[in-house]
UniProtKB/TrEMBL annotation, chain A:
Gene: purQ
Catalytic residues as annotated in Swiss-Prot or TrEMBL: 86 (nucleophile), 195, 197
Superkingdom of origin organism: Bacteria
Role this protein plays: Part of the phosphoribosylformylglycinamidine synthase complex involved in the purines biosynthetic pathway. Catalyzes the ATP-dependent conversion of formylglycinamide ribonucleotide (FGAR) and glutamine to yield formylglycinamidine ribonucleotide (FGAM) and glutamate. The FGAM synthase complex is composed of three subunits. PurQ produces an ammonia molecule by converting glutamine to glutamate. PurL transfers the ammonia molecule to FGAR to form FGAM in an ATP-dependent manner.
Compartments, record wording: Cytoplasm
Record-given protein name: Phosphoribosylformylglycinamidine synthase subunit PurQ
Complexes and interactors: Part of the FGAM synthase complex composed of 1 PurL, 1 PurQ and 2 PurS subunits.
GO cellular component, one term: cytoplasm
Keywords recorded for this protein, A-Z: ATP-binding, Cytoplasm, Glutamine amidotransferase, Hydrolase, Ligase, Nucleotide-binding, Purine biosynthesis
UniProtKB/TrEMBL annotation, chain B:
Function: Part of the phosphoribosylformylglycinamidine synthase complex involved in the purines biosynthetic pathway. Catalyzes the ATP-dependent conversion of formylglycinamide ribonucleotide (FGAR) and glutamine to yield formylglycinamidine ribonucleotide (FGAM) and glutamate. The FGAM synthase complex is composed of three subunits. PurQ produces an ammonia molecule by converting glutamine to glutamate. PurL transfers the ammonia molecule to FGAR to form FGAM in an ATP-dependent manner.
GO CC annotation: cytoplasm
UniProt keyword list: ATP-binding, Cytoplasm, Ligase, Nucleotide-binding, Purine biosynthesis
Quaternary state and interactors: Part of the FGAM synthase complex composed of 1 PurL, 1 PurQ and 2 PurS subunits.
GO molecular function: ATP binding; phosphoribosylformylglycinamidine synthase activity
Organism: Brevibacillus parabrevis
Family note: Belongs to the PurS family.
Name of the protein this chain belongs to: Phosphoribosylformylglycinamidine synthase subunit PurS
InterPro entries: PurS, PurS-like_sf
Subcellular location: Cytoplasm
Enzyme Commission number, as recorded: 6.3.5.3
Lineage: Bacteria, Bacillati, Bacillota, Bacilli, Bacillales
Length: 230, 82
């Protein structure tokens, strides 16, 4: 398995994400610059947090037109795993791989702290190592994480079990229905505001994010019938 | 030469926390007549074109593709002599 961490001008969580893949999954991982036009060698594509293109106009609005995004859309359509974290989530909504949009936090303040989440769908390729309804701690760091969609879309998200994570306890940004992360209908594209890559070791205060990476690896192994010998 | 003046605001159905804060500040200052405040973006685009109809069509396309996110925002624009 080979993983791509896409790097846009202004990405800043790319190193954390790269390290998390290396530490937890132990598979080859590459930084892939936003101008790349071939992602065929990758099995999973990760879009990191940050402020791509300075978040000018809207977060993710300019990044979605990067050459690499056409390939990300193609990969998603081919069923490959695509995960966007924070700014990566914003880019995935802008490009239309995920429904809805991320608005300014209701408090108008940048929120940077450990956040309680509930795993509302543990049947996605990204969450199968969690228990259903499990309560976990993952840090957040965003000013525009207030998830919004219209009522019809929300009903669809619920009916298809596309709401993967909800804030548990305090909702830090005013998001609709306490949504912290969603997936597409097919389940192979996930976007979330919290940063699992910043919670992969005990010394990081929480290592609850590790199992997202082990889930991705397990999914890939199952799909490719790779047997592991303990 | 024409100039496009583009206004982008959050849709009416979307809560605008900035507008809400500004309304509160205006009330504090005694401007009680302010019922609602919406904060948006103002953009000026200088267009290298002599055809007004074409300019309108192209600016609409710019708004739909990039300048506004129609999931949460409304836009309107004026084409004026540059």
């Amino acid at each position: 398995m080979r993983v791509a961490v896409i790097v846009f001008p202004g990405s800043n969580a790319d190193v954390d994400l790269y390290n998390a893949v290396e530490d937890v999954m132990g598979v080859p991982v590459d930084y892939v610059w936003h101008s790349e036009t071939d992602l065929s060698g990758y099995d999973a594509i990760l879009l990191p947090g940050g402020f791509s293109y300075g978040d000018y106009l809207r977060c993710g609005a300019v990044a979605r037109f990067s050459p690499v995004m056409e390939q990300v859309v193609k990969a998603a359509e081919a069923g490959k795993l695509v995960m966007g974290i924070c700014n990566g989530f914003q880019i995935l909504t802008e490009v239309g791989l995920l429904p809805g949009a991320l608005l300014r936090n209701r408090s108008l303040k940048f929120a940077c702290k450990l956040s309680g989440l509930r795993v509302d769908n543990n049947e996605t390729p990204f969450t199968l190592d969690y228990a259903a309804g499990e309560e976990i701690q993952i840090p957040i760091a965003h000013g525009e994480g207030n998830y919004y969609c219209d009522e019809e879309t929300l009903a669809k998200l619920k009916a298809n079990k596309q709401i993967v994570f909800r804030y548990n306890g305090e909702n830090p940004n005013g998001s609709l229905d306490d949504i912290a992360g969603i997936c597409n209908e097919r389940g192979n594209v996930l976007g979330m505001m919290p940063h699992p890559e910043r919670a992969v070791h005990k010394w990081m205060t929480s290592d609850d994010g590790r199992r997202m990476f082990t889930s991705i690896l397990k999914t890939w192994r199952e799909q490719n019938s790779v047997t592991t010998h303990a | 030469m024409f100039k496009a003046v583009v206004y982008v605001t959050l849709r009416e159905s979307v809560l605008d926390p900035q507008g809400h804060a500004v309304k509160g500040a205006l009330h504090t200052l005694g401007f009680d007549e302010v019922n609602n405040a919406r904060i948006g973006k103002y953009m000026e685009l200088e267009l290298n074109t002599a055809d007004r109809a074409q300019a309108e069509e192209r600016v609409r396309e710019m708004c739909e593709k990039l300048l506004a996110n129609t999931v949460v925002e409304d836009y309107r624009f004026e084409i004026v002599e540059g």
